[in-house]
Every structure is written in C-alpha cells, then in structure tokens.
Design brief:
- The structure is a single chain.
- This protein is α+β, with helices and mostly antiparallel strands.
- Helix 1 crosses helix 2, helix 4 packs parallel to helix 7 and helix 13 runs antiparallel to helix 14.
- 32% of the residues lie in helices and 25% in strands.
- It is flat.
- The two termini are 31 Å apart.
C-alpha cells in the first residue's frame, strides 16, 4: 500500500442530483414561475459567466401535483431550464415545487420534516464538477430573470443546500493513449481478470459487457456491486462501474486529436447501491473515491499513473496534478486467484464419487448454472444426496434458489479442465496443484521496495513455471545521453528491490525484461543490462 501524491486529477463527466433549497422557503420556485410567465413560457438568453458563454432557455411542464388551497393558481408546473456552455458543457435542470402539502397531496419522496422549499433536479450535467454546478445555478437563473425583466433576488439558490440534497449518479474519467490503454480490455487485461475472479462470487453481482464493433475497446464496461468492489480496495466501497470507451464516431487516423484516445471512467449510480444516494455535501468524498478507484485500476494493469504520458489532455481533462493523496494498493487479482486456487486444490483432493458426479454435472452446464433437479437426473442421485453434496462443496458451488453455479468463473474453468483432461484424477489434481502453486512464487511485498519500484516505473512481473518476464511501461533507453531513464540503472534498482523483498536474486537475473524505447518494444535478458550497472 502506497500513498501517491503525483497522479493527475480526474475530470467530471456526468452527474445527476437533487439539490434542495429551503433558505427562502418556496419563494425561488414562484420567482422562476414569474420568469416563465414574463417570457410567455418560452425564451432564451445568452450570457457570460466568467470567460465562458452560456445559452439559457426555459420551458414548462405539468408537475402532476395539486396546488395548496392557499395558492392562487390552478396548475403547478415544473420549469425545465436548459443551460449550454462551451465544449459540450451542459447543465439541464428542473425547478420543482416543494410546498409542504398535507398528507393526501404530498409526494412520497419528500421527507415529512421538509417545509416549503424549491428543488433543483440536475438531469445529467456534463463536464461540470459539483461545486461548479452550485455556483452556476444562481448566476444563470439571474441572467434569465434579467432578460425577462422579472423580479429576482440575488441570493436565491446561493445558500447552503439542505441535508436531503443528494447525488444519484456521478462519473469521473481520464483520457489515456490508445496504444497503452488497450491492455486494460485485452484477453488478459484487468477487466477480464476482475470478471473471471469476481463474477458469480457469493453475495456479489458483477456484470461485464464488451463491444469491439468499431475498434478494439469501442465500449467495455464492468460493473461491480458493493461486495465485489470492497474485495478490491481497503475499506468499504460503493458499487460502481469501470468504463473504457470511444466516442460514437471513432477517430481512426489523427493521433493528435484527443478523441482518438479512449476515456477510462468510473461511474457511481444509486441503483447499484441498494437505492442509496450520496449526500450532496459529500460530493468531494465521492469524487475522491472514484479517482482512487481509477488510479488503482490503471496501476493493476501496469499503466503509469504519475502525471505525464500516457495521459492525454482534452477540453476538460488537463492531466494536471491532483490535490488528493490517494492510496495505491497491489493488484488484488493474484491474491484472489491464489485464494481460489487453494480452495480448489483442497476441495478437489478430497472428492468422493458423489461430489465428483455433482461437479461434473455443473461443469457440463452453461455459464448460467443448472437446476438441482437436472443435477439429480444427470448424476443419477436423489434430491437429498445432491443437497448433502452441495453442502460439502460450498467452497466451489453456490445454490441460488435451486440454480447451482460455480463460485467464480476461474474455478468453473479449471474444474471443467479437470474433467476434460486425460489420465487419473489423482494425476490431474497434482498437475493443477503445481500450476496453482506458481501463483504465489513472487515476493509478497505490499508496502516494501519492490512495490515502490513497480509503482515508479509501471513495472509488472509475470511468472509461468521457470520463466519470468518483467514488463516496464515507462520509456527507457540503454544510452545515458538521452532524457529517458537509463535502462540498466532502472533494472539495477529493481534487482535490489527484488532481493530486499525476499526474492531469489538469480531468478531476477535470469528473467527477460520488455520495455519501450522511443516507440519500439525491446526485449532483453536482465543479466545483459546488469552488466552495465556499477
């Protein structure tokens, strides 16, 4: 675990919220109604806020609510304010009456202790941070009131939003060089690794969707509920979705166009969190969580996370240093994989004939699982025998309302391979145990020098049997005369960090290192580089 203070600040993409204002009771609502009436319910104005030009328009729609007996109107309206800035910045809001109705008329969504107020529903604002939204609302509405020559108080919508104000959806993003970022959605990238290890886990819900129709990585998404997200980082996490996506019209040639390179986003939605929204006052804490998740996701795929390459600035994301110190943790997927491997090897080494028949029936079924009664038929076992077997195999199988699935896709794949393999089951178990054992042959270094070295140079270490490959994303050179890091020195630092973290020095010397040198991938034995280190 490392505290990082040199990463770039993420940019806001989309946000939906309800901002409730009670300081002036329901007066702001009636003032907005006065604007619409003065403009004959339809009008627009262009105005400048700071150095940015905005166009603001207003329309109305029926609220579906009845006015109070004391209101001198027949119909209550909601007022849709469309605010369009520069470079696709948009702030669509809906001004809604909150009039402290009696119980028979009061919308159920309004808490009982809220008196007369005005609600501003933010409907998918784009490229605006929460604090910008708070600042823009009174300024843009004031400009519209001045245009309509309608009564308006300068302090409307300027007070502290009520505690019931909430965020229901929020996404922040980075833009990453296409060639570097594609590893995220490759066959062995972090999106697929998370899905393989967390999908179908007991008590969690993980959804993965991939669309490569226009370009590799056109639109990939992996959604993790609270349980799955909490497995990845220290401390409780909200359910969220990681996104890798290009614009609808994919850029194909001009690499200088920021839109040639994809966005990497992290999205929070109320609907993925037991319908729990985030209090508006906590928007900075939510921004921090989304940014921390994004940086860790990139780190787990060995993508550099310090300011500079491979981050690509656009009209809203500038790759400037963040003011947040975040926690960077080791890639959790090797740990998850090792834990699942240990469970699998232990369970498979103690199989009875009954257990083997049940496992084989589930392994031969589809990804969506198999019903208990179909296991009974395929394995020729009684209902009670199947249920006793499921109790024994609960580390490998889960029963959800009669549908039996493996606890992870990784376990499903390896159990399926066992039944496809030739030879005795005992031999198969030994082979699997040997293979899974290799997952833990790298030094365990959660906070030590090896992790620091990997973090600094975006290095990953992969081991298959006796073969070890070190992949370094940071551009290096074998010449000291360039401004790129000197490859022998970087590898020398890595060798010392490896040894200090408990690794076998000879294993590191025998490894192959792959790195980028001026756009060309170099592959060389570590020992060849170490010859140049004094």
């Amino acid at each position: 675990m490392t505290v990082l203070d040199t990463h770039p600040k993420s940019a806001p993409h989309e946000i939906r919220a309800n901002i409730l204002y009670t300081e002036h009771s329901d007066k702001p609502y009636w003032a907005v109604r006065g604007i619409a009436n003065a403009l004959d319910h339809d009008g627009s104005v262009s105005t400048d806020v700071g150095t940015e030009s905005w166009t603001v328009s207003i329309t109305r729609q029926s609220s579906g609510l009845k006015p109070r007996p004391s209101d001198d109107v027949d119909t209550l309206y909601e007022y849709r304010i469309s605010c369009t800035g520069e470079d696709e910045r948009k702030l669509p809001i809906l001004i809604q009456p909150r009039l402290d109705w009696d119980d028979s008329n009061r919308p159920q969504s309004i808490p009982d202790d809220v008196g007369p107020a005005t609600n501003v529903r933010v409907e998918t604002a784009t490229y605006l941070a929460p604090e910008e939204i708070e600042s823009l609302i009174p300024q843009l509405l004031c400009a519209l009131a001045n245009h309509a020559n309608a009564p308006w108080k300068q302090n409307f919508f300027t007070g502290q939003p009520h505690d019931y104000s909430s965020i229901t959806q929020y996404e922040r993003y980075y833009r990453i060089e296409r060639e570097t970022s594609q590893s995220l959605v490759s066959a062995d990238g972090i999106f697929h690794r998370l899905f393989e290890l967390l999908a179908d886990s007991e008590g969690s819900k993980v959804v993965h969707a991939a669309d490569d129709s226009h370009v590799v990585g056109y639109n990939h998404q992996i959604r993790l509920d609270r349980s799955a997200a909490t497995e990845l980082l220290d401390g409780p996490q909200r359910g969220k979705q990681f996104k890798y996506y290009h614009p609808k019209r994919v850029r194909t040639h001009d690499i200088e166009d920021p839109l040639y390179h994809p966005k990497i986003g992290c999205l929070f939605k109320k609907s993925w969190n037991n319908n729990d929204s985030v209090q508006w006052d906590n928007h900075d804490e939510l921004s921090f969580e989304l940014e921390e998740n994004l940086i860790n996701l990139l780190h787990w795929d060995a993508i550099p996370i310090r300011c500079g390459s491979p981050f690509v600035s656009d009209w809203h994301f500038t790759a400037a240093p963040s003011d947040r110190d975040i926690i960077v943790v080791n890639d959790p997927t090797p740990r998850l994989s090792s834990e699942q491997s240990a469970v699998l090897v232990s369970a498979l080494s103690e199989l009875t004939d009954r257990d083997r028949d049940i496992l084989e029936a589930v392994a031969n079924a589809s990804d969506t699982g198999i019903h208990v009664r179909d296991i009974e038929a395929e394995a020729n076992l009684s209902n009670s025998t199947v249920y006793r077997g499921l109790d024994t195999l609960d580390d490998l199988l889960q029963n959800r309302n009669g549908i039996v699935q493996f606890t992870s896709r990784k376990i499903r794949k390896h159990v399926h391979d066992v039944f496809d393999a030739t030879g005795s089951t005992d031999t198969q178990m030994r082979l699997f145990a040997d293979a899974f054992g290799s997952d833990t042959q790298l030094p365990q270094d959660s906070e030590g020098p090896l992790h620091q070295w990997q973090l600094e140079y975006a290095a990953s270490i992969d081991r298959e049997g006796q073969n070890m490959t070190i992949r370094i994303q940071t551009e290096m050179d074998r010449l000291k005369s360039t401004d790129r890091p000197f490859a022998p020195e970087v590898i020398g630092q890595g060798s010392r960090a490896w040894a200090e973290s408990g690794g076998n020095a000879q294993d590191f010397r025998d490894a192959t290192v792959e790195y980028d040198n001026a756009g060309e991938t170099k592959s060389i034995l570590v020992r060849s580089l170490l010859r140049h280190v004094r």
